[in-house]
């Protein structure tokens, strides 16, 4: 049974992390050099293979990189996550106090399904921060961005057994576009939330067949798998499981379009111009500015997704536009 208590005040840095997704201005997209510039060199660092972990007392940053890419011993570092290990505090903050503080500033948390092993999970979707809470004590264990869980269908169990999902995916891959639409009309549940869970389960299975960075190479079977995955991704967006930013990022990550087309999709999805984008210098994190903050966040995610494809992009105008966004990235929200 969950214990509820007020306990000590919540550190302001913890509240700020949930609201902004940053620790001292550094977030999961920051490079090691950018983190050092913001937080200093008082850290402990370890490397395992192509992964790098850096710890500043409570705060941890993690990166990974591919082999090759121009640096002395590998490619450029790519951010994985930033975590605040709240359990290391002498008095970890209770969830009730954190929730009250966030409600007060207008950034409430949303609870998703428990993890099944003794923890509650909550998210702040716009900052992509996940909060893990001990079910017994009610204390916050850790906070991470981006969250590894999500509200809605993405945070719920699949409505179908894994084997059924695989069989359905194999069937859909063998159909033409009209036949797939006919299948959807006949087979999908009528209830919107249940249908959304179906779409998400099928999309997850479809992208697993491709893998990140799969590119456009491959024979007819892989081409058919990409076509089906792109269709499923569109259905997830139509069902509200993914927004346009997330959908464009997935297109880029899983090679569902050729590099130029994928980059164009990312740029077209950016909801604000560079001149109008909110930055850390111009716009405070406040409820009144949330639309501008979230547009800036979308621009950051989309420019990073497009940037990963730059070596394979042929159109020089597309390359120039992406590079201009990447120059602005450190200031985006």
Note the main sheet: 8 strands, antiparallel
Helical/strand content category: alpha+beta
Distance between the termini: 38 Å
Percent of residues in helices: 40-55%
Strands, total number: 8
Morphology call:
globular
Biggest sheet strand line-up: 1-2-3-4-8-7-6-5
- Low-pLDDT parts are 1-5
**Radius of gyration from the alpha-carbon trace, in angstroms:** 21 Å
Tally of individual helices? 11
**H/E element order:** HHEEEEHEEEEHHHHHHHH
Estimate what percentage of residues fall within beta strands: 5-15%
State mean pLDDT (0 to 100 scale): 92
Polypeptide structure, described:
By secondary structure, this protein is an alpha+beta fold. It is built from 11 helices and 8 strands. 42% of the residues lie in helices and 14% in strands. Strands 1-2-3-4-8-7-6-5 form an 8-stranded antiparallel beta sheet, with helices on one face. A hairpin with a 4-residue loop joins β6 and β7 (129-134). α6 packs antiparallel against α7 (220-238). It starts with 11 loop residues before the first helix and ends in a 5-residue tail after the last helix. Mean pLDDT is 92; it is low at 1-5.
């Amino acid at each position: 049974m969950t214990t509820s208590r007020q306990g000590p005040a919540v550190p302001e840095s913890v509240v700020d992390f949930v609201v902004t997704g940053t620790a001292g201005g550094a977030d999961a997209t920051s490079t090691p050099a950018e983190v050092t510039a913001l937080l200093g060199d008082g850290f402990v660092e370890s490397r395992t293979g192509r992964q790098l972990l850096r710890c500043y007392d409570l705060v941890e940053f993690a990166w990974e990189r591919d082999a090759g890419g121009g640096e002395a011993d590998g490619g450029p570092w790519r951010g994985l996550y930033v975590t605040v290990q709240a359990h290391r505090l002498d008095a970890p903050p209770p969830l009730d106090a954190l929730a009250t503080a966030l409600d007060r500033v207008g950034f409430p948390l949303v609870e998703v399904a428990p993890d099944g092993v003794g923890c509650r999970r909550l998210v702040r979707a716009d900052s992509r921060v996940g909060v893990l809470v001990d079910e017994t004590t009610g204390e916050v264990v850790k906070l991470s961005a981006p969250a590894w869980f999500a509200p809605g269908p993405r945070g719920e169990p699949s409505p179908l057994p894994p084997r059924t999902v695989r069989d359905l995916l194999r069937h859909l891959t063998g159909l033409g576009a009209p036949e797939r639409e006919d299948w959807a009309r006949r087979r999908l549940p009528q209830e919107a939330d249940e249908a959304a869970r179906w779409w998400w389960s099928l999309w997850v299975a479809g992208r697993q067949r491709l893998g990140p960075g799969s590119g456009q190479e491959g024979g007819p079977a892989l081409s058919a798998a990409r076509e089906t995955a792109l269709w499923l991704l569109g259905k997830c967006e139509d069902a509200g499981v993914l927004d346009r930013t997330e959908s464009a990022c997935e297109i880029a990550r899983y090679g569902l379009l050729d590099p130029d087309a994928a980059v164009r999709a990312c740029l077209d999805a950016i909801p604000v111009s560079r001149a109008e984008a909110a930055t850390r210098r111009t716009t405070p994190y406040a409820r009144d500015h949330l639309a501008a903050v979230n547009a800036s966040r979308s621009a950051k995610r989309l420019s990073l997704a497009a940037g990963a494809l730059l070596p394979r992009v042929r159109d020089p105008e597309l390359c120039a536009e992406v590079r201009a966004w990447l120059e602005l990235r450190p200031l985006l929200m």
